[in-house]
Design goal:
- The chain has 383 residues and is α/β, with parallel strands linked by helices.
- The protein is 32% helix and 26% strand.
- An eight-stranded mixed β-sheet has the order 1-2-4-3-5-16-6-15, sandwiched between helices. It has a four-stranded antiparallel β-sheet with strand order 10-12-8-13, with helices on one face. The protein has a two-stranded antiparallel sheet with strand order 7-14.
- Helix 5 (205-218) runs antiparallel to helix 6 (261-281).
- It is elongated and about 80 Å long.
Length: 383
């Protein structure tokens, strides 16, 4: 079973309408309402809303024993200005669907159309439209939601479009797919002084200098191999913008990455220990906050094989590409919650604008391709 031409036309129009009205992580109320209304037209047995914030889950239940297969997409856009002259360009200042989540969610709506015409023979399919992927909070919130036990998956499958990879090609491999990462904010507190008498205060300057060098040394990056760790300093602020004041406080933001959750946790502990030791050495107070925590994303062999056979069935060639990737993906938490999970990276075109750039737009040609991948996977698992 495949999408009809009218299906593709309607889905493309829906995707472009979502693109016009982007909402960022945690604010996806209108996007969720639009998705819930659209999927309700295609005969799910249940539609759950408000999961983990603005999440929507459509359940297709055979009412026969069998596993639960979750197909997951994302609802959120980015706080980036879109710079394009497309007729469906963002109408919301400072926000844009510049990662393709509008397309991913539209693919799930295409899957809903096929499921309404041919329900699963056994078990259940859950179409999970997840909120807040971009800041790493959405999957955790969905899993913690009281409604999640009603839809806990045995299998979890997802895709992401991938600019730079040719249309009709994909990246797929078992094992590590995306790094774990976290944002660490380090706050150093001392005492200000007159700029002519800096010795009478406690400036964070020497501690900050040593902290920068130390973080870089403990997270050097390099090739993606076991033990990979990367520390990227993303923001620095020290004191007031004045020439007459020796600063008394500073703030450093660093993004920490590891190939595994254990690698990341070790790097986080090491970074905090370094900051505490330097604070003690220079007579400063120190505090931390953590942000945007993404777990490592690993492709389970069984789920990877299912996606591989689906790609074979629709004639999409694939290889491991640049996997595992340094970038992070919130999907990894579903595997950590016990599902056999895997994500495939579907080529958007070798010359397509990169993700998170101001001229990016999801390629509509991927809608029927993505629907076919998930449809084949569902049929293999559930019949």
């Amino acid at each position: 079973m495949t999408l009809s031409n009218s299906d593709i036309i309607e889905l493309t129009a829906f995707r472009r309408d979502l693109h016009r009205r982007p909402e960022v992580s945690g604010e996806e109320a209108e996007t969720a309402r639009a998705v819930a209304k659209a999927v309700s037209d295609w005969a799910p047995d249940r539609v759950l809303t408000g999961i983990g914030g603005h999440g929507v889950a459509a359940v297709y239940d055979s009412h026969q024993p069998g596993p639960t297969v979750m197909i997951r997409s994302e609802l959120d856009a980015l706080p980036i200005v879109e710079l394009s002259d497309l007729p469906h360009a963002s109408e919301i200042p400072g926000k844009g669907h510049l990662c393709g989540h509008d397309g991913h969610s539209t693919i799930l709506l295409g899957v809903a159309r096929l499921l309404s015409r041919q329900p699963p023979a056994k078990g259940r399919v859950v179409l999970m439209f997840q909120p807040a992927e971009e800041d790493g909070s959405g999957a955790a919130a969905v899993i913690k939601d009281p409604a999640f036990p009603q839809i806990t998956p045995d299998w979890a499958l997802s895709l992401h479009n991938m600019p730079g990879v040719a249309l009709g090609r994909a990246w797929l491999a078992a094992g590590p797919a995306n790094c774990a990462s976290v944002g660490l904010k380090i706050i150093l507190n001392g005492a200000t002084a007159h700029a002519s008498l800096p010795e009478t205060g406690r400036a964070p300057t020497p501690a900050l200098s040593s902290l920068i060098d130390g973080l870089r040394a403990m997270g050097p990056g390099g090739t993606m191999q076991p033990g990979f760790r990367l520390a990227t300093i993303t923001h620095l602020r020290m004191g007031e913008p004045a020439f007459g004041i020796a600063p008394g406080e500073a703030e450093l933001w660093v993004t920490l990455r590891g190939l595994t959750d254990d690698d990341l946790n070790a790097l986080l502990n090491q970074a905090q220990t370094l900051a505490r030791d330097l604070a003690t050495q220079f007579g400063l107070g120190v505090a931390f906050t953590v942000h945007d925590h993404f777990h490592a994303c690993n492709n389970a062999p069984e789920a990877t094989d299912v996606l591989g056979r689906a790609l074979d069935a629709i004639g999409v060639g694939y290889d491991a590409g640049d996997m595992p990737m340094r970038g992070s993906e919130d999907f990894g938490r579903f595997g950590g919650a016990g599902a056999k999970s895997a994500m495939v990276f579907l080529g958007s075109g070798t010359d397509h604008p990169a993700l998170h750039t101001q001229t990016y737009d999801f390629p509509d040609d991927l809608i029927p391709q993505g629907v076919a991948i998930f449809h084949h996977a569902i049929r293999e698992i559930l019949g």
